[in-house]
Amino acid sequence: MTATTTVGRPRADRGPVRPRRGTDSSQALHAAGFLSPFVILYVLFIIGPALYMVLMSFFHTSLVKPGLGSFAGLTNYAEAFGSADFWSSLWHTIWFTVLTTPPLILLSLLFALLADRVVRGRWFFRLAFFAPYILPSAVMALIWVWLYTPALGLLTSAVTSLGLTAPDWLGNPNWAMISLALATLWWTLGFNFVLYSAGLQDIPRELYEAASIDGAGPWQQIRRITIPMLARTTTLVAVLQVIASLKVFDQMYIMTSGGPNYSTRPVLEYIYDVGFTDFRTGYAAAASTLFFLVVLAVSAVWLVLTRNQEKEGVA
Prior knowledge:
The protein contains 13 helices and no strands. The protein is mainly α.
């Protein structure tokens, strides 16, 4: 008898080929080695200070005394809940978020749609809209302080040339927050613009061609194709913008220092004042923890919305 051997083909009775455990463990070890510097730094500079902040909020900690100080229990939290200044600063933060979030979403979407339809020079418009976002907050604040300067600023001159009386942009409590919101719109519009531009690139052009053949106009294409296809991008932009607006500090501190008459003091500046001006870091930690819970709640809402959208997409 002559035995025949099949070269290059696995035998059927050997079963499926199993991956080597040694290879998987070595790959996992290499991955852990690459991730370990980030994990160490993240724990040291993010997780560790956050946990220490929560611990410090239960003590009468002060910058002028060593250690955590005496145990306070929930006294700091009770004081924050009963503080009119805390709630006032929180309202200023929420009001700033309301003033900035809807315009930043709508304008960034509008400009992204317009730039996407430009045939030549599209790169120039993308650069022009994104360029202000790379400016440091101090530079942006100085630019807009000069624009808002009474009798000398460019905006005052423009309003005066129209025969109108220019308001005291940063010195009037009724105009200060609006003025800060306008400066923030110019500064941060580019980030949302880039996100929407990336989302538009992912929409298949065949959908627009088919809609055009069926007689759909530009507005109908935007309403029936573009806006629904950008639903997840809009959700991401909205939540990121809300969180960024809630964490406002730089431009308010530089341009108005919370004034006039504390009408533009956000909650982060209030925490800074009680922590580093009044030296009550324990109470500041309690206020920070409460504000962290607010931001965490917003993030949780975004997570729920995203999962619902994914389930609808699968269905």
